[in-house]
Amino acid sequence: MTLKSLFAHFKEMPNYFIASALVFIAGVALGYADSARFEAILQSQVEGLRQLAQSIAVKDHSMLWLFGFIFLNNALKSILIIFAGALFGVLPLFFLLINGMVIGYLASLQAQAGELGFFLKGILPHGVLEIPAIVIACAYGIKLGAIVGKGFLRLPSSQGRQAFAAEWSRFMKVSVPLIGLLVVTLLAAAIVESTVTPWLIRK
Q1: Read out DSSP for the chain?
Q2: For 164-192, what is each residue's pLDDT tens digit?
């Protein structure tokens, strides 16, 4: 399939896109409004990222290391989360919720410190590319979960099994240009995050 075919397929996906976006937004709201309840979990996520950032900062050519880590981490996760959706869409939903909660939690901490503007400068430049890419990847993961779920229900019928095989095959064909689109988008996001974002934060 081509990108044109992928964009045509997007027309079949609005409910999945909306559902993914709403779960992510719910995660942000939960992490922001009720950060104390989930602080231990979210702080462990943040601490892991902080330690990685510190280890990268001391390396030679740290900007290249940062770019490589951001790009590979996001690209691999976005690809894996599509196919992890085969487990009835549970993992993409969890991924959206946790990532939203981490962003909400960090925003809450910065707001309490009177530094919300600083946080927005750090998240928005690359977030306008990265967040939609993650939402789209998770939407397709949920779609795959729905295909698998319906496939189980259709197993007793030979006609149902044929329908499942056709849906599965079509999804796999769509996943090729989808992965290409996600990789290019996340490559652009990684360039912004490793160059523009540090510059804005220093200003």
Answers
A1: --HHHHHHHHTT-HHHHHHHHHHHHHHHHHHHHTTTTTHHHHHHHHHHHHHHHHHHHTSTTHHHHHHHHHHHHHHHHHHHHHHHTTTTTHHHHHHHHHHHHHHHHHHHHHHHTT-HHHHHHHHHHHHHHHHHHHHHHHHHHHHHHHHHHHHHHHTT-HHHHHHHHHHHHHHHHHHHHHHHHHHHHHHHHHHIIIIIHHHHHH-
A2: 889 999 999 999 999 999 999 999 998 88
